[in-house]
Amino acid sequence: MSVHTAKRRLSPANIEALKGERPIVSLTAYTTPIARLLDPHVDFLLVGDSLGMVLYGLDTTVGVTLDMMIAHGQAVMRGSERSCIVVDLPFGSYQESKEQAFRSAARILKETGCSAVKLEGGAEMAETVDFLVSRGIPVLGHVGLMPQLVNTTGGYRSVGRNEKEVAKIRRDAKAIDDAGAFAIVVEGTVEPVAREITATLRSPTIGIGASPACDGQILVSDDMLGIFNDFKPRFVKHFAELAPAISKAVEDYANEVKARTFPAIEHTFQLKR
Ligand SMILES: Nc1nc(=O)c2c([nH]1)NC[C@@H]1CN(c3ccc(C(=O)N[C@@H](CCC(=O)O)C(=O)O)cc3)CN21
Ligand SMILES: CC(C)C(=O)C(=O)O
Ligand SMILES: [Mg+2]
């Protein structure tokens, strides 16, 4: 046995191989302490551009920059050891050309040490996905509801409700699958369509608002923990209610400071005598 026995992380290929074996478990993470808590329980952590809305108070993900994604990617890498880490390419960092996409994705891999990137898009992004994958950058696809298109689609509405939308999702998912994505996030998509593409595609589907028929599931951690409550899409389940717990703790702290009951003797440095 070599002296280099660093524990190996799950790879994108390991994630891909889970299709047909067992459901794939994923959550978002943006910071070191949260990554530490989630890492033992998930197959991959996504450093999502949703951090713009959740951490920075932006109205959409459009304002998120590559530098923001890299800083948070580094933080999540420091807090994890076994899960695969995937970082979102933010709006404007990959749509212009496949060369621009490679440049942005390469920066993410080199500066964070993560092993894959995610990009939103269907048939129009297939050439880009093939360009990245064939040059050593594993890609997680993202079809269906695409939040970076909010300015042209006019909202966060679920898709697949008429034949035209169904045909587009079919074509988009097939194109990204054929281009070599190791898995594909399917967001905000009606159940029969999510079920059909999951049965048809080579790569696993990771659903968010896309029914239990998908090969895996992902949620925004702050949503499922009940920390981020500015909006609650239908697909979010609160597995905890941390917002009221935090409010209560802060209220108690404020009251104790005002009553001078905090800090107590055990929180106070005294001169020995
Ligand atoms: N915290 C958070 N969670 C997310 O899931 C998320 C983000 N942020 N930021 C990026 C995108 C934006 N997403 C969203 C945002 C809102 C809805 C929403 O309000 N959906 C409504 C239906 C709206 C309609 O049909 O008009 C719902 O009830 O699901 C859905 C997805 C998903 N992503
Ligand atoms: C919701 C997931 C899929 C995402 O793209 C994000 O968190 O940015
Ligand atoms: Mg995203």
From TrEMBL:
Residue positions binding Mg(2+): 49, 88, 120
Pathway: Cofactor biosynthesis; (R)-pantothenate biosynthesis; (R)-pantoate from 3-methyl-2-oxobutanoate: step 1/2
InterPro entries: Pantoate_hydroxy_MeTrfase (IPR003700), Pyrv/PenolPyrv_kinase-like_dom (IPR015813), Pyrv_kinase-like_dom_sf (IPR040442)
Keywords from the named record: Cytoplasm, Magnesium, Metal-binding, Methyltransferase, Pantothenate biosynthesis, Transferase
Catalytic activity reported: (6R)-5,10-methylene-5,6,7,8-tetrahydrofolate + 3-methyl-2-oxobutanoate + H2O = 2-dehydropantoate + (6S)-5,6,7,8-tetrahydrofolate
Annotated 3-methyl-2-oxobutanoate binding sites: 49-50, 88, 118
Cofactor info, note text: Binds 1 Mg(2+) ion per subunit.
EC top class, as a word: transferase
Entry annotation: catalytic residues: 187 (proton acceptor)
Gene Ontology biological process terms, A to Z: methylation; pantothenate biosynthetic process
Assembly information from the UniProt record: Homodecamer; pentamer of dimers.
HAMAP family tied to this protein: PanB
Family in the record: Belongs to the PanB family.
Protein name as it appears in the record: 3-methyl-2-oxobutanoate hydroxymethyltransferase
Annotated source species: Sinorhizobium terangae
Gene encoding the protein: panB
